Amino acid sequence: MAQAHGASISLVFETVRDLANKDRNGFVTDTEFNYLANIAQLNIFNGLFDELKDAKRLSRSGFNPMRDKSRIKRIEEDLAFFSKKSTVSKTSGSFLKPVDLARIISVSTAGSILLDQSTKKPIELCYDEEKIERILISNLSAPTEDFPVALVSESVQVFPTSINKVEIRYYKYPESRNATTGERLSSLPHHAQFGTKRNFELPEHYTSDLVYEIARMVGINLRDADLATYTDQEMKTKKQAETY
Fold first, then answer.
1. Residue 106 lies in domain
2. 64 and 182, same domain (yes or no)
3. Is residue 3 one of the residues assigned to a domain?
């Protein structure tokens, strides 16, 4: 299977540049574009969670369920691309979040495999300090090693405090890919006239979304039907040129 290269930084840059010229919106420099490219990718990435929540809500309500199931599957597949897990040891009474953590999926005790059975215990997540205080002083819901609870804030505090290692599953922030090899990189997308280019880490089918998001931030009015048509045509032409 060919290595995915992510959405092309060159294709997005050239399309936005041409749109800016057509809309008489000035010249988009590499520096300005690179700054906006990172913001645009984050905006689209964060929007996927809202889109997934809306699709699941509509699916539960029975509104066009087949279409919504398709949307749910597509978004979940795209988000799965950014899922990671990290085993973290306690530091000064709490567990530090991974530096590239965007959103937590789940937390469990580290555990091991014993007789083909995992000894991991899921940890209930709490984001409310008042609620965690009520849990800790309750005779009925006080956490135990079999039923631990975590307060998620700047770091992760796990109760009971006898737990010293946890496994965090999470979605990482999107970064970039080497434009030539497709290798995933721990750096931001980057366009340069000369030297190594770094593609977006978002999949290729988000190219149009990236163009529209950056163009919006530049101030290009893409509600104009002629300009939207031009955008689609330009992207098809540039995509074909990149292919050959």
1. 83-172
2. yes
3. no
Task: Report yes or no: 104 and 125 within 8 Å, Cβ to Cβ.
Answer: yes
Per the DSSP assignment, residues forming a β-bridge with 126 are 151
Task: Show Cβ contacts of residue 64 under 8 Å, excluding neighbours closer than 6 positions.
Answer: 58
- The model carries a pTM of 0.84
What average pLDDT does the structure give for the chain? 87
Residue 219, C-beta contacts closer than 8 angstroms, at least 6 positions apart? 25
Q: Which residue has the tokens 């906006």?
A: 36
CA atoms of 106 and 95, how far apart (whole Å): 14
Q: With 80 as the cut, is the pLDDT of residue 136 above it?
A: yes
Instruction: State which of 172, 195, 217 marks the end of a domain.
Output: 172
Q: 81 to each of 76, 171, 172, 201, how far by Cα in Å?
A: 9, 9, 9, 9
166 and 158 Cβ atoms separated by less than 8 Å: yes
Are 190 and 234 contained in the same domain? yes
